[in-house]
Amino acid sequence: MKLYTSRGVANGRKVRAVASHLRLKLDLIWLDYFTGDVFSDAFARLNPTLRLPVLDDDGFLLWESTAIIQYLCGKVPGNDLYPEDPRVRADINRWLSWDLAHYNQHYSLLSLESVVKPKLLGLPNDEQAIRWAIPHLHANAAILDAHLSGRRYMVGDRISLADYAIGASEFFQHRLPFDWSGYPNINAFYDLMRAEPHLASTAVEPEEMGRRPEGARPFMEQSDPSSAARRFDHSAA
């Protein structure tokens, strides 16, 4: 299976961590935000939304990282990340859905506008979007912190897809203009996930984020760096 991704991208990290946990081998194809790979026509043919990651399983192209990690679990019957018990799976699905619809929506927007655009891509940020995202993130952080009270993991007493989905964004936590001091359980959870071996193996230094690893074959032989500024959207979050 091939995975088209970029270093440091949270959604790519969660797919790689889940695959590692399941002992599934992925052939990683690195895209570089700074040379315009993600905004190219070549990538648009793989994913019209221009978002990473994309899985290619013998010609079956699958995008949306949550769908990808559920698909990977389907390849390993009896795995402990996505148990077949209906109630346990429903609970995991509940938090995966909540993350997509609420928590990650505001977390990723704040990451994009306060970190990715100004510090990584050199693009102007949207101060109005930042002001909008912060109170919404506080509201959802309160829900998450209350849920994590007295527990280490999102569902039950062991790691699941829900932990990888929410924990994969740990890179941005202390880089956001957001006060986490009122959420001790979230802080403990992110610390736990930073040390989790499969997720930790996907971590990068800030200067490596979004860049193709040295020696990796270019996604496009000829790329257009200016396309990043022309076509950049929320795909980096």
UniProtKB/TrEMBL annotation:
A molecular-function term among this protein's GO annotations: glutathione transferase activity
Keyword Nucleotide-binding attached: no
PROSITE patterns hit by this protein: GST_CTER (PS50405), GST_NTER (PS50404)
Origin: domain of life: Bacteria
Pfam families the UniProt entry points to: GST_C, GST_N_3
Coiled-coil intervals, chain numbering: none
Ranges where the GST C-terminal domain occurs: 85-219
GO BP terms: glutathione metabolic process
Chain spans, region Disordered: 201-237
Keyword DNA repair listed: no
Listed InterPro entries: Glutathione-S-Trfase_C-like, Glutathione-S-Trfase_C_sf, Glutathione_S-Trfase, Glutathione_S-Trfase_N, GST_C, Thioredoxin-like_sf
Protein name in UniProt: Glutathione S-transferase
Organism of origin: Sphingosinicella soli
Lineage of origin: Bacteria, Pseudomonadati, Pseudomonadota, Alphaproteobacteria, Sphingomonadales
